[in-house]
Amino acid sequence: MRTPERTMELFNISAEQSVLGALLIDNDAIDRMGDLQADHFYRGDHRTMFAEIMRQIGAGKACDVISLHEGVGARVDESLAYAHQLASNTPSSANIGRYAGIVRDKALKRGLVAAGRQFVEMAETSIEEGSVLVDRAGSMLEKLAEAKVRQEPVRASDEMSDYVEELERRIDGTGAKPISTGFPDVDKRLSGGVRRGELIVVAARPKMGKTAFAQNVANNVSLDHSSLFLSMEMPKKQLHDRNIASLGRVPLSRLLQPADLENNDWTGITHAIQKLTDMNLYVDDQPALRLLDVRMKAKQVKRRHGLDLLVIDYLQLMEGEGDNRNSQIEGITRGLKSLAKELDIGIVLLSQLNRRLEERPNKRPIPADLRDSGAIEQDADAVLFLYRDEVYHPDSPDKGVCEVNVALCRQGEPGTAGLAYIGEQTRFESLANGWERSQPKKEEPRRRGIAEHL
User: Where is the composition biased (Basic and acidic residues) (predicted)?
Assistant: First the structure.
């Protein structure tokens, strides 16, 4: 079979020259070329000259033919004559954005070719399993895809016309709406629910019901939207058990021991299965996910089915890159925030809390209790803490109530909402008459003297 001839070169020398020439005649054109880097240039002398131009402009100096020649010195042959030629052959800097885009595009295609060759070499020579090689290949492609074009700042007044139109759409009910959690009291604290592009952290100590809460939210969202639940803690069968228990209002213990099922339980099971059939809910139980894995799974569901909400259970089980756990967590939360904006989805991220709060008399969580990194509260658009007083005080007057404390919220009103928690069914629901936290009983002062013995 004849090998197909290459129909397109993987470089464009004219585009590279036009970028350099535009920068030499107009240093301010640097603001219109996007995120172009020296490594994007094909020719070595072009890389050297571009890096020097960027260095001089970045230092606040004017860069022209003479200063460029002095800066590159002997690293570029006949640099003075060539720089003069570049500047003379570029009539205007108006099209630098288009030329820079061509240079970036060619660099990306060269990267794909190089990666493809490396994939072939890995497949032919590596003794590692194919799944490991696929993960490595995915990481390489992800790095190629991370090249971004810088967005130019705009004057705020120029955006007001679009803003007013969006405000009118909100009034008419046709604008972008937050994604409801299914719990009105929680939505109120979040100013309507989870907004696209937001990262919402839900944190609690063990046994508080954070996985059940996240599943309930995902189920509620899946009725009218699409949600993906990534569980690194529980296998899919356990997730299904909990969903059937919650949606069918069947005690989880009976599902785990079917011999105890009662006749009316089967009605609930049938109802739950039918409801799940009608829901746009996707689940995955791969353990030890990396940020790359989360991105690939979310993008896959988004592309094939559409995606509105991503739930991750939970942060501390994810693998990250960095010298220590703090830097790893920081990279993960920052990446998830970027992913939410990139895919235009809401992300609910579950997180553990430090054990230190167990040493306090009042064990209700505060932001300082977030485990592993302060980056969690910095990157999150909202932080919700779950607390059930009965876990620590079995005779609590708030037994059966879960406090959802919206402690941090950029777009909402911090405060606490109460939800009913039916533990045997792993189900949350709104309280019929609202909720106010019960006040602890005040101890009567101890009487002394004769009065103490009366």
Answer: 438-454
